[in-house]
# Entry
Amino acid sequence: MARLKRQLAQSPPRERILRAARELFYRDGLNAVSVDAIATAADTNKMTLYRHFSSKDELVAAYLSELAAQAEALWETARNEHPGDAEGQLRYLLKRVSAFADEGSGRGCALANAAVEIAEPRHPARRVIEAHKRRQRENLVALVREAGYAKPEPLADELFLLVEGARMCLQSVGRTGPGSRLYALADALLASAPKRKSVKA
Amino acid sequence: MARLKRQLAQSPPRERILRAARELFYRDGLNAVSVDAIATAADTNKMTLYRHFSSKDELVAAYLSELAAQAEALWETARNEHPGDAEGQLRYLLKRVSAFADEGSGRGCALANAAVEIAEPRHPARRVIEAHKRRQRENLVALVREAGYAKPEPLADELFLLVEGARMCLQSVGRTGPGSRLYALADALLASAPKRKSVKA
DNA sequence: CATCGATGGTACTGATCAGTAACATTGCTT
DNA sequence: AAGCAATGTTACTGATCAGTACCATCGATG
# Structure
């Protein structure tokens, strides 16, 4: 019974800590959240936290790694939702990001925010951030190419910048700014982009 | 003589403080820089700083206001450089931003960064940031319209997001990312955008 | 010279925070 | 029941930092 309760309401402390970290770090920023606040929000204490993460920096890195993995799983989802349809996958992803920008908390991309907050080039989180963004861009280029557009790299870069810019705008201009029109803008971009002349095998 | 030296090497403390704040706040982030560090870098002390700025938050707001004013002065420069030539002004501005993205410190837009670092919606700096970004967008829409493009608002929004995204990318993906191709991408966007059929009075 | 305002310097308060030590407790396994 | 590993609890250290009190100094002005 106590076991059941633990099973349901209390996952292992490491998970609870990461869940709390996600909420607080994202909402308030990395610097504004103390280790103690996370431990308390995770219904545990600082000691247990430090038994799972050797420092706050490592907790931050773990938090960002988790987010990156989750974001990258979205590509898999897109493939499953629109198998064999690169254009459909592309639009699915853009819609998802766009919806997130609309309904989200207005705090933009957690990875990008972390990059802003962490000025030190040596911080362990920087590797995570940079690697993630690079993979995202590579995936995007590949998908745009697969969808048959004539110049996949510039087009993918434009889409990439639109997405990054939109998420950033939410924080500076607010929800009413151009960030809220992300999908429409991306759609217009795709519509006017020329496709390769039928190359399909 | 002492007066001359003061005139040359030592501007009034308020200016020195703002100059130091610009360097340190931009390079290391708002939270990472102490008031003391700024005072020392400004060759003065905390007391004098607090005689000119009632709190660190106000210093931050002043720092951002100064940057915003400086950024907005760029529109004036564009008008002077290409009088009566909206298209030329537009491209001049895009080139300037693009060059900044290339040669800059890789820390992106100070105003946007501040918005990331300041999560509290009540912070005095948020008004500065939001107002600035709004004006920038309005100016951009007006300029794109003046340049004769058929659908000025969406085009201006796309450009706006490209610029914001590029500056953000410098921090997350680094200098080699798509942020470094800002002008080429914006140029392609403008080239493929239809113009209004001659309407000029 | 006297005065006054602005500035410099020092030392402090109070608060927050990362990280640790030492001990108590719980729950599972044998 | 005994033992063990993970977790909870409390209290602490050392450091940093925003903001202030108090006094010294300097430069201009009368």
Notes: Residues 50 and 105 of chain A are 29 Å apart (CA to CA). Residues 2-3, 6, 34-36, 46-47, 50, 55-56 of chain A lie near DNA strand C (CB under 10 Å from a C1'). Chain A touches chain B through 47 residues (CB under 8 Å). Confidence is low (pLDDT under 50) at residues 1-8 of chain A.
